Amino acid sequence: MSCLLWMFPVLFMVHELEEIIKVVKVMPYSDYLSRYSFTIAVLEELLIILGGVSLYAQLSDNYLIWLGLFIAVVIHFIPHIGIAIKLKAYIPGG
C-alpha cells in the first residue's frame, strides 16, 4: 500500500508540471495568473497532498482522506482523457 500511497503525489506532479510548462500561457485567465503564480499554487497543493494527507495516511493507517483526494484527482483526469480521445492526440497538461 505504501507504494500506491506515494504514487499519488508523483502522478499529481507529472500532470501539474505539464500544465506549468505547456498550458499556462494559453489559459483563459493567463492575463491575471503568471506562470510563477500558478507554480506557487501547484506547490501549495503538493505540500497539502504530500506533506499532509499522504504522510498522515501512512503514519495513522487511515486512508479515507487520501482516498477522497485521490478520487477527486481521478475525476479531474476524466475530461483530460476525453479530450485526448476526441482529438486522437496526446495533449500535454490538457
Describe this structure in words.
The protein has one domain (2-87). The longest helix has 26 residues, at 35-60. The protein has helices at residues 2-23, 35-60, 64-87. Helix 1 (2-23) packs antiparallel against helix 2 (35-60) and helix 2 (35-60) crosses helix 3. The model has no long low-confidence stretch (mean pLDDT 80). The radius of gyration is 15 Å and the shape is globular. The chain has 94 residues and is mainly α.
Question: Which terms would index this structure?
Answer:
mainly alpha; 94 residues; single chain
Give a brief description.
By secondary structure, this protein is mainly α. It contains three helices and no strands. The mean pLDDT is 80.
What is the strand tally? 0
Number of helices: 3
Order of SSEs, N→C? HHH
SSE class: mainly alpha
Distance between the termini: 29 Å
Residue share in helix? over 70%
Which blocks of ≥5 consecutive residues have pLDDT under 50?
none
What proportion strand? Answer: under 5%
Radius of gyration: 15 Å
Main pleated-sheet profile: none
Mean pLDDT: 80
Number of domains: 1
* Shape, per Cα inertia axes: globular
Outline the fold blueprint.
Elements: H1 2-23, H2 35-60, H3 64-87
Helix pairs in contact: 1-2, 2-3
